[in-house]
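User: What would this chain look like folded?
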Amino acid sequence: QLQLVESGGGLVQPGGSLRLSCAASGFTLNYYTISWFRQAPGKEREGVSCISASGSSTNYADSVKGRFTISKDNAKNTVYLQMDSLKFEDTANYYCAAGSRRGMSRCDSYVYLYEYDYWGQGTQVTVSS
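Assistant: Here's the prediction, encoded as structure tokens.
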């Protein structure tokens, strides 16, 4: 079965950290650009971060730049999103998605507009005191 599974979400205080994982099964992430998205209640889905298949290109939304770090472990077929200095406004359901469309490997700000091949079910992140 081809799927992405996110984990690592939870409840954290402002200023705290979480590390989200996006594990692929049934296919290898070596050939896919992986992006993290988030969606808060009543808000549109937002592209958060991207990493190219090779890992050489990354992208971050302005709202998370300097606080979030994306990485991948090909041996574990997993992409991570390290989230530090979390803020109330980071509260959302976080999804990872894998895509192979031409041009996605640039991981520029337009990558979040492409059609993705696989989506995870999401993991909830709640930042609250």
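The mean pLDDT is 96. If you want, I can go into more detail on any region.
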